[in-house]
Amino acid sequence: MTLKQKIYRHYLQQINDKIQQLQKVLDDLKESGSNETKSTAGDKHETALAMLQIEQANTRGQMKEAIVQKDALEKINPSIAPKIVVHGSLIKTNRGYLFLSIALGKAVIEGVHIIALSPQSPLGIKLMGLQEGDTAAINGNNYLIESIE
Fold first, then answer.
1. CA-to-CA distance for 140 and 99, rounded, in angstroms?
2. Local structure of 52: helix, strand or coil
3. 83 domain-assigned
4. Are 131 and 99 contained in the same domain?
5. pLDDT tens digits for range 6-36
6. Model's pTM, two decimal places?
């Protein structure tokens, strides 16, 4: 398995774990809500129920965002190694490895530090379409592309 495939699997697992965690929170909130409906404590009951509903809506929003991220990540084929930077590229630069996928932050895989960033990020936009030997500059930092997977 290539480094790119390991990176891809790591971030996919991270998203799947997040979705499972959010589903558990939703299940717990649903259970709390059903327990709360059995109570008839007046204003306290109404406030607690409203808070649960707000929390459920927030968690559903996070779940929807995580599913969108997962869908975007699953569109990447980690076996393909194009000659130019495209969505799904693993880019080795003079400043480290960048995985152009979705904004998932930093990870260390096999001792290699990787940053997963979105193609819509300022750096992602500058990198798109470049090839080995090209540079992208942002915020006073130059990124020399050493290799693309």
1. 21
2. helix
3. no
4. yes
5. 999 999 999 999 999 999 999 998 887 777 5
6. 0.86
